[in-house]
Amino acid sequence: MSEGEARPCWLCDRPLGTRVQWHHVVPKAKGGRETVPLHPICHRTIHAHFTNAELARAAGSREVLLRNEAVGRFLRWIAGKPPDFHAPTRSQR
Domain ranges in the chain? Predict the structure, then answer.
C-alpha cells in the first residue's frame, strides 16, 4: 500500500469514509492490542453477532467472522453502499 493510499475497511473491504472506528480484533478485555479500521456500521455488526469470548476464540481471524451466515448476508447487502452509509444494526445475540 502506497503512502497516500487509504486502508479499506477490515471487514467489508470497501473504502473507508469520513467516520472510522478502530476495532480490537481480540477484545482488550481478553488481552488484545491489535486494532483495525472499520466503518461504524461494520463495527456494530461484529459486536451484534459475536461476544467478546467468541472474538477472543477467533484470535483476530477475519475469515472466522466471514464464515458467519449473518455477517455474510450483511456483507452482500452493504457491498454497493457508499462509504459513509448508515443504517440501524440488528442484534442477533
Answer: 21-78
HSE toward the beta carbon, residue 40, CA cutoff 13 A: 9
Kindly report the pTM of this predicted structure. Answer: 0.86
Q: C-alpha distances in angstroms, 25 versus 8, 37, 80, 86? A: 16, 10, 25, 22
What span, in angstroms and rounded, lies between the C-alpha atoms of 39 and 83? 7
> In the beta sheet, which residues pair with residue 14?
none
pLDDT above 70: residue 30: yes
Tell whether the torsion through CA atoms of 70, 71, 73 and 78 is positive or negative: positive
DSSP 15: B
